[in-house]
Specification:
- By secondary structure, the protein is an alpha/beta fold.
- It folds into three domains: 286 residues, 3-Layer(bba) Sandwich (FAD/NAD(P)-binding domain); 104 residues, Flavocytochrome C3, Chain A, domain 1 (Alpha-Beta Complex), CATH 3.90.700; 117 residues, Methane Monooxygenase Hydroxylase, Chain G, domain 1.
- 35% of the residues lie in helices and 18% in strands.
- Strands 1, 2, 6, 7, 8, 9 and 16 form a seven-stranded mixed sheet that branches. A five-stranded mixed sheet has the order 17-15-10-18-19.
- Helix 1 links the parallel strand 1 and strand 2.
- It binds flavin-adenine dinucleotide.
- The site of flavin-adenine dinucleotide has 46 residues, from helix 1, strand 2, helix 5, strand 7 and helix 6.
């Protein structure tokens, strides 16, 4: 059996930073287990920037202002102590990244360059053209290799092992051979990213963002938090949902409706295109619903006035994606866009060190919910979250691993994992994986997307039950062992169905509108009744049980949120 002091599941920015921190002592053995090759993790797709109040461009910026912007952006659902840590520690982690060799763009004076971003009162997002995630991920991977972190690439984690109090390890499938393994670990850090793929056809997320770690934690009895909050990014490419970074608007791009109007004058007259994402996504949907969209119910992101030089210099990747996937050159004409499911505010409930309710089990990054983003994340704050809280989880797991021993591993721990695989592999069925996945995604986009109401959400709860029944009958057609991608997709679909159910039930229960969660039948924020986190745990009947937890308010009393 493989044995590690600290085992990290996921090789995005959160996982790689956690790995590096927990490997700071020579005799602590650390491994990263990842279902894709490390540098293909979704972090590598991040385009626009990472926030830190360095005050390099606007000398009046401060971490306190960043803190306030974050709390206001969250529609007051963020825990203010966590958000404080996020903003206070931001300059330190960015400098650490710089020292490790992360090639940020520079100001004329040679400092780290910063650009404006949505919902921010100051120019605060550090960037590297439109490839910030790519350069961060490569820097962290290189440092991990240098520091002796072990990597298990293309290994799919199936389940989390614990004894009710303490962590034991995980079960995983080596996709390259089809073999199942138990890996024993004193500490496990889940850093498996978000669950945006539950909206399969309308998301900016990588194919692997199926919420595996979140679903695995839920099935292992760990509570999930605020799962109903899913952010729609206003500017996804019309037909594919591929992201056109907020960096484009940071550089001065306009949003135009089908009539050529800069419609944000109606919704955020001060901030205009740099309003927060939840507000702009709703503004776009409203324009389209009221008949002011383009021929395919899209609106347009106009960069043409920025000029070819600036576009080529600052937004080269955006331009190429646009040419490749939409056949439009943004130097010449406006980009057709639609809102796209982008970020999972909800996740595994943790404290400020990433610790869950089980000793030795941590979660960090988009898979976790320490609650810095509340009901709506600000652009540039997620890459920051993965650094700050990836690092904290790593530091804490290292400390924990040093002071604990390995627990004996019970026999037959692989049995459940094996029967789950057998369930998908043995026999035949008429159900098609792609059909169930498509029906789930359409249902989520229609009934649990930007606009929600009781009728639609109730329908979604019922339809999801039917889909789960169909899933039980699903058998994969590919019976091979080596690189069975259909089997992996089958496992992922099971995870997504579990999470979709929790998202929908949380959304149905929350009778108010806050941040990314907008109920047409309850259009206002209701602090008297709903200034609280939703906690979902798995009930004895296998269905989610909801409870609530107060929001930590330390400094900013909730007020009306205008931009
Ligand atoms: C297109 C795009 C652009 C973005 N731009 C920005 C931006 O400019 N600024 C910003 O702040 N944020 C941005 N974000 C958000 C931000 O990039 C992500 O929230 C963040 O990178 C998530 O990092 P992570 O480490 O939590 O997870 P990810 O980077 O998603 O990595 C998840 C990891 O988990 C592994 N994994 C998953 N399931 C399993 C399993 N079962 N077994 C083993 N391994 C598993 C995967 O292999 C992967 O390595 C963007 C997001 C997208 C989608």
């Amino acid at each position: 059996m493989l044995t590690y002091d600290v085992l990290i599941v996921g090789s995005g920015g959160a996982g790689l930073y956690a790995a590096l921190e927990s490997r700071m002592e020579e005799d602590v053995q650390v491994a990263v287990l990842t279902k894709v090759y490390p540098t293909r993790s979704h972090t590598g797709a991040a385009q626009g920037g990472v926030n830190a109040a360095l005050a390099n461009v606007d000398s009046t910026d401060s971490w306190e202002e960043h803190w306030f912007d974050t709390v206001k952006g969250s529609d007051y659902l963020a825990d203010q102590d966590s958000a404080e840590l996020l903003c206070r520690e931001a300059p330190q982690v960015i400098r650490e990244m710089e020292h490790w060799g992360c090639p940020f763009d520079r100001t004329k004076e040679g400092k780290i360059a910063q650009r404006p971003f949505g919902g921010a009162s100051k120019t605060r997002a550090c960037y590297a053209a439109d490839k910030i995630g790519h350069v961060m991920l490569h820097t962290l991977y290189e440092q991990g290799l240098r520091h002796g972190v072990d990597y298990f690439n293309e290994w799919v984690t199936l389940s989390l092992l614990h004894n009710g109090q303490r962590c034991l390890g995980v079960n995983a499938l080596d996709a390259r051979t089809g073999k199942l393994h138990t890996i024993q670990a004193k500490a496990v850090i889940l850093a498996t990213g978000g669950y945006g793929r539950i909206y399969w056809n309308r998301t900016s997320n990588a194919y692997g963002n199926t919420g595996d770690g979140t679903a695995i934690a839920y099935r292992a009895g760990l509570p999930l938090k605020d799962m109903e909050f899913v952010q729609f990014h206003p500017t996804g490419l019309r037909r594919t949902g591929i992201l056109m970074s907020e960096g484009a608007r940071g550089e001065g791009a306009y949003l135009l409706n089908g009539w050529g109007e800069r419609f944000m004058t109606r919704y955020a007259p001060e901030k205009m295109e740099l309003g927060p994402r939840d507000l702009i996504s709703r503004a776009i949907e409203t324009e389209v619903r009221q008949g002011r969209g383009g021929p395919e119910d899209e609106v347009f992101l106009d960069l043409t006035h920025l000029g070819a030089k600036r576009i080529m210099e600052r937004l080269p990747q955006i331009r190429q994606l646009c040419i490749d996937f939409e056949g439009v050159d943004p130097i010449e004409e406006p980009i057709p866009i639609k809102p796209t499911a982008h970020y999972s505010m909800g996740g595994i409930h943790t404290d400020i060190n990433g610790l869950t309710s089980i000793e030795g089990i941590y979660a960090a990054g988009e898979a976790g919910c320490v609650s810095v983003h509340g009901a709506n994340r600000l652009g540039g704050n997620s890459l920051l979250d993965i650094l700050v809280f990836g690092r904290r989880a790593g530091v804490h797991a290292l400390e924990y691993a040093r002071k604990t021993d390995f627990l004996p591993m019970p026999k037959n721990v692989l049995k459940m994992a094996q029967s789950c695989i057998n369930g998908l592999m043995e026999g035949d069925s008429k159900e098609s994986l792609a059909d169930i996945r498509r029906d789930m995604a359409n249902l989520m986009a229609d009934k649990a997307g930007i606009y929600r109401d009781e009728t639609g959400l109730t329908e979604a709860v019922n339809k999801l039950e039917e889909l789960k029944e169909r899933y039980k009958k699903l058998r994969v057609q590919d019976k091979s062992k080596v690189f069975n991608t259909e089997l992996v997709a089958g496992l992922e679909l099971g995870n997504m169905l579990d999470l979709a159910e929790i998202v929908v039930k949380g959304a149905l229960s929350r009778q108010e509108s806050r941040g990314a969660h907008y109920r047409e039948d309850f259009q206002y924020r209701d602090d008297d009744n709903w200034l609280k986190h939703t906690i979902a745990t798995k009930g004895t009947d296998g269905k989610p049980v909801l409870s609530f937890k107060p929001v930590t308010i330390t400094n900013f009393q909730p007020e009306a949120r205008t931009y």
